[in-house]
Amino acid sequence: MSSLAVGVVGMAREDLTLQQRGETVIATVVGERLDPPEGRKGRNWNYTLEHEDGTRVPGPEMRTTSDLYDVGQTVTVIEDPEADLRPQTPGQADATGEVLGAAGFALAAIGSVVWMAWRGSVTERETAEVVGQARLRREQEEKLRETLRAYSADRRGYITVSPGDYPALTHGRAARIAWEEGLRAEAAGNRGVWRFSETVIEEVPHS
Q1: How confident is the model at residue 9 (pLDDT cuts 50, 70, 90)?
Q2: In this predicted model, which residue has the larger pLDDT, 61 or 2?
């Protein structure tokens, strides 16, 4: 889309330049040709123009999207004294509406490209965060399993761990891991710590 916008803006800029520095003349069509076929691309008609004195109108051939003129026909055109731009009829060179349309088209295209780039960046970042969180959660789950297997119970029969060591795990997930290891998670009176034992007063639901 951005490349199309660049093309449209370029055409509008050429039309405006031709209006500003061009000269209006009466020319005669001395040659016409149709672009060779190129896939499904539209074919343009190209006209060779001469002044009344027989000199050629400067610049590339005049171009239209349909067959509008015949050899020998006279036509009023705006020519480029510097021979850089194609001659155009005054109607073709009226760039006011095209410039406004091109500006809006270009802004929409640029906005679309910027949005897609931003969205791609956000998606990539979100994916990396999700992957990172999943990896951290697996690491902490394994760490908790090792802790529950290795630690000795206190005199009351509890294995106590600090939730701060497992920020990626919920109490319910920790309870599930403990259950898989043959223990239960204590819900009541934990005073900021997680306690696990074979028997508890109030068990935390597994998640």
Answers
A1: low
A2: 61
Report the candidate in 67, 87, 69, 86 with the shortest Cα–Cα distance to residue 77. 87
With b meaning 16 or more CB within 10 Å and e meaning fewer, what string describes 89-107? beebbebeebbeebeebbe
The model carries a pTM of 0.43
Q: What is the mean pLDDT of residues 183-207?
A: 82
Using CA atoms, how far apart are residues 189 and 197, in angstroms rounded to an integer? 14
CA nearest 148: which of 171, 170, 181, 118? 181
**In three state form, how does the secondary structure of the chain look?**
CHHHHHHHHHHHHHHHHHHHHCEEEEEEEEEEEECCCCCCCCCCEEEEEECCCCCECCCCCEEECCCCCCCCCEEEEEECCCCCCCCECCCCCCCHHHHHHHHHHHHHHHHHHHHHHHHHHHHHHHHHHHHHHHHHHHHHHHHHHHHHHHCCCCCCCCEEECHHHCCCCCHHHHHHHHHHCCCEEECCCCCCCEEEECCCCCECCCC
Distance separating alpha carbons of residues 85 and 16, to the nearest angstrom: 11
Q: Which amino acid is at 87?
A: P
Residue 46 is encoded by which pair of tokens? 């190209």
